[in-house]
Amino acid sequence: MIQKTAASSDAAETGPHIAIAARNVTLSLGEGKARVDILRGIDLSIEEGKTVALLGPSGSGKSSLMAILSGLERATGGSVDIAGADFGTMNEDQLAVARRGRVGIVLQAFHLLPTMTALENVAVPLELDGQAEPFKIAAEELTAVGLGDRLDHYPTQLSGGEQQRVAIARAMASRPTIIFADEPTGNLDGTTGEKIISLLFDRQKATAATLLIITHDPELAKRCDRIIELRDGLIERDSAA
Amino acid sequence: MISSDLGKAWTIARRDLRGRFVGLRLLIICLFLGVATLAAIGSLTNAITEELANRGQAILGGDLEIAVAQREATEAELTTLGQAGTLSETIRMQAMARLPDGSDTQLVELKGVDATYPLYGKFTLEDGKIVSAPKPKNIYVTPALVQRLSLQIGDPIAFGEASFTISGVIAEEPDRLSEGLSLGPVAITSLESLRATELIQPGSLFESKYRLKLPATANPREVADGLIEQFPNASWETKTRDDGAPSTRRFIERMGQFLTLVGLASLVIAGIGVGNGVASYLRGKQGAIATLKILGADSAMIFRIYLFQIMTVAVGAIALGLAIGAIAPLAIIQIAGDVLPIKPEFAVYPLPLLVSALYGLLIAVIFALPPLSRAKTIPAAGIIRGEGRSWRQIDRQSWIGVGLAIAAIIALALGTANEPLFSASFIGAAAAILLLLTALGALIRWLASKAPRPKNPLLRLALTSLHRPGAQTGQLVVALGLGLTLFATLAAIQTSLTNEIRSTVPRDAPSFFVLDIPVERADEFRTRVTDTASDAEVNIVPTLRGTITEFRGQRVSELETLPEGAWVLRGDRGLTYSATIPEGSEIAEGEWWDENYDGPPLVSVDAEQGAAMGLKIGDSLTVSLLGVEIQTKVASFRTVNWRNFGFNYVLVFPPNVLDNVPHNVAATVQMDVSKEDLLLGVLPQEFPSISMVKVKEIASQIGEILDQMATAIAAAASIAIFSGIAVLIGAIAASRQARVYDSVILKLLGATRSQILTVQAIEYALLAFLLSVVALGLGLFAGWFVITQIFEFTWQPDWPIVMLTLGIGAVATLGIGLLGSIPVLSAKPARALREL
């Protein structure tokens, strides 16, 4: 069992805590002639509670970096410390357990479980983490994202914006240290996308989580504390917004 | 920890499933069909054997039966039997019934019963009267005899030297089943009236049966053993109420076992459907699995969640199959009750249901574990990266699980088999066919990938469809291969059985068997026949009945089980003597005796039975005739042509051994068909003691039995074909997404629907053709095995029909494949591209 470390303890006493620490992270897929180097040595450190935008053209390695930082994929080389857990040394199942309560993920295509209601979708990570009263927490979280009246709706009965709200509620429900959002408005129209981004930032503030958001939208990036730009598997620019 | 993980998995599994079985339809259909078939076969077999056991007393006509051939019990024997319990005596023989004016005759099973008959059960007449022995000079007859001789109650009828009045038509003869095969309709009279026919003579072929009603506390087997001990040389054959009709029971059990194995083969085909269904269901769940992993589920949790789901649905399908299988005997009894040896009462039999359920569960485990094991390795990152990465390999634990389940199935099949060797060879053959088809699937994929690319784009696409990633070729080859193999096997078995029926009566077979010709009138008989029909060929042989009591120093009564295949040791058998090698026999080993041999007793034994008993030349063999034991030495083994419809005997003695024993002779008469009726009119009048058996009538009885067997096999195997079709449809459905993609892209590039259909037709035609060739080989082998090794018949399939059946199977396959492609063709490019 991987224990959550004290990474989120009072920052005032010990100085700013580091939520994400990556050193010389590389990722290669395939072998021999078919080998593709996707990430070629990423060094990155993100403090707790910060909002960070990850920008870059298609194929720059944004999604791969997020997959590694969120524990969905193992790096080929380098070290990855996420909220006090050494993701670089864990196998896939250990990563799955380590994600519980530590990492929340929001994806472009929502990825709700189609056979479960909104309430059940949000409750699943809490249940997997063995938390008490998962449905009570899930209902509160859905109410917080404005879906208090949609608890028993199935994903197909919800609009795209509503589905993404459920995804945000699901990511936030276990109060993770870090939220990863991969182009969360990519499947939504402009107005709805704007509302979703506002909600995401509101919830981030309310929970004091670290937010790492992948986007193509420079305007959205400017709302973050920090902007990291990737190109060809390397960090091209790292600046305050 | 584990229980809490199980709890979590169950909660999520249940929620995710929630009545949405659509993705698991194939699993449900396949398991349902397979389990229902097995449960129905098991329930019916059990119902019949239980009925035989439950009604054992009535079927046997007592708690204990002592039968003896060609003689009645002595006074001493009768006294001892009478002391053991209430005694009932019957005598049964074949005899010719004659109309008093001699205008018609009929071979009849004539039975004499005493006043205590029946000890159990009810002897009922058609008017509802429950009766015992008829009054003197009266006789009860079955409806078949009434119809055959156009009789009615009150009409006279003659047997031997006596004349009777028909005083009732039999509705139920309670001990009918234990009497065994009958060569004609039954007539029942009193013992005294039977004796008045003067058909019971020293040497004539009749069987006396003494049934005992024992005190409730007595054990029939112990009583029988005690009686045999008191009269060790009496040549008694004993049966107890537990097993009143052993040959019927053996037939039902053997047939049941064979059908169970056919059912098991169906279930294995269904298993492929289960595997495909589960794999396709889990492919549909790929996104959900990745999402659950993102939310913190590890691979063990994923495995548990989907194992719970699949097993829940499997248990449901199995339960449904069991329910239908359990009530199926009710329908079978209603529809085909007359074909069954006994109409069983409907009841639910837990044991065959439990065995069928276990088979279903184990098959579900074997075929569901591999896709489940792959599914748990679906990477969470797949969601971000698209679904392009192939699933990983099956892990070791899952292989171990599959291995254990296979071992359990084999153990279950062998453990519940009456003949484990037979079951083992069936399972071995089925496994070999399965492996061969799996290898063939891989070979076809490999060949398709290595074959030179045709210039025609449609052909090229059809060829590449066979080996591209995600192609269903492997599963299709196994499922279709098994289905077509079954088509070929069934056609070969059916036509071989039909030909068996046709050739049961060889061209040179005799027209009649004539039994119980007094030995002193043998020459007179021959003359009378040739006077009536000058072209008739008469072959006369002495006939006696005796029991083997010892061989190679081993008393048969002390054997716990008879050596496999040594049926000659079971009860009394026909014996003969001859100075020369009998017609239809050849010496296989040893030497035939001189024509005037006068030395110590010798015997010539059928080579197959000799081998079953482990006999060698010079070994001792003792037979008991009319209560006298004769010890002989084996002088030779003969290869006997049992199929020539002549008189064939396992044991043949030199004349000096048996010619002093009272006996009659039997004859085969071969003659022109047109004069058969003439002979039937003349001989019974002049030789009242004889029985004339029309060979054609026996052949038609055998034909009926073979026909029923063929129908039962076809019924059980048709389920396998249904399963095969379900698998085919499932495999087509599983590859539909890839085919829709192909179809849409081809349409974008300008292909018409007929061109797209042609691609699919070429692909399926290639498969169907290749598999037909393989199925022909495998099916013929399987058919040959069943016909020659299981039923011990001649292998004589009707080639054109086998080929035609296979061709129809292949065309049907092609048709179903193309029908399954219609939704693919109708995919609208614009909409499909948005969804893909």
Please give a handful of descriptors for the protein shown:
heterodimer; A: 241 residues; 8 helices; 27% strand; globular; disordered N terminus; B: 836 residues; alpha+beta; six-stranded mixed beta barrel; six-stranded mixed β-barrel; 54% helix
Structure characterization notes:
The complex is a heterodimer of chains A (241) and B (836). In chain A, 32% of the residues lie in helices and 27% in strands. With 241 residues, chain A is of the alpha/beta class. In chain A, strands 6-7-8-3-9-10 form a 6-stranded mixed beta sheet. A 4-stranded antiparallel beta sheet of chain A has the order 2-1-4-5, covered by helices on one side. The termini of chain A are far apart. Chain B is an alpha+beta fold and 836 residues long. Chain B is built from 25 helices and 22 strands. In chain B, α2 (25-54) packs antiparallel against α21, α11 runs antiparallel to α13 and α17 (522-532) runs antiparallel to α20 (676-686). The mean pLDDT of chain B is 85.
Sketch the major β-sheet of chain A.
Answer: 6 strands, mixed
Question: Which residues of chain A form runs of ≥5 with pLDDT under 50?
Answer: 1-14
Strand order of the largest sheet of chain A: 6-7-8-3-9-10
Helix content of chain A: 25-40%
Number of helices of chain A: 8
Rg of chain B: 33 Å
Oligomer: heterodimer
Secondary structural class of chain B: alpha+beta
Describe what is shown at a glance.
Chain A is of the alpha/beta class and 241 residues long. Chain A is 32% helix and 27% strand. Chain B contains 25 helices and 22 strands.
Strand and helix layout:
The complex is a heterodimer of chains A (241) and B (836).
Chain A: H1 11-14, E1 18-29, E2 36-47, E3 51-55, H2 62-69, E4 77-82, E5 85-86, H3 92-99, E6 103-107, H4 118-128, H5 134-144, H6 160-172, E7 178-182, H7 190-207, E8 210-214, H8 218-222, E9 226-231, E10 234-240
Parallel strand pairs in A: 3-8, 3-9, 6-7, 7-8
Antiparallel strand pairs in A: 1-2, 1-4, 4-5, 9-10
Chain B: H1 2-17, H2 25-54, H3 56-60, E1 64-69, H4 75-84, E2 86-98, E3 105-113, E4 123-125, E5 130-131, E6 138-141, H5 143-148, E7 156-159, E8 162-172, E9 186-190, H6 191-196, E10 206-213, H7 220-230, E11 237-240, H8 246-284, H9 286-294, H10 299-336, H11 350-375, H12 382-385, H13 396-415, H14 420-450, H15 457-465, H16 473-504, E12 512-518, H17 522-532, E13 537-551, E14 554-555, E15 573-577, E16 585-590, E17 602-606, H18 607-613, E18 620-625, E19 628-640, E20 651-653, H19 655-658, E21 664-670, H20 676-686, E22 691-694, H21 695-734, H22 736-748, H23 753-790, H24 799-825, H25 829-835
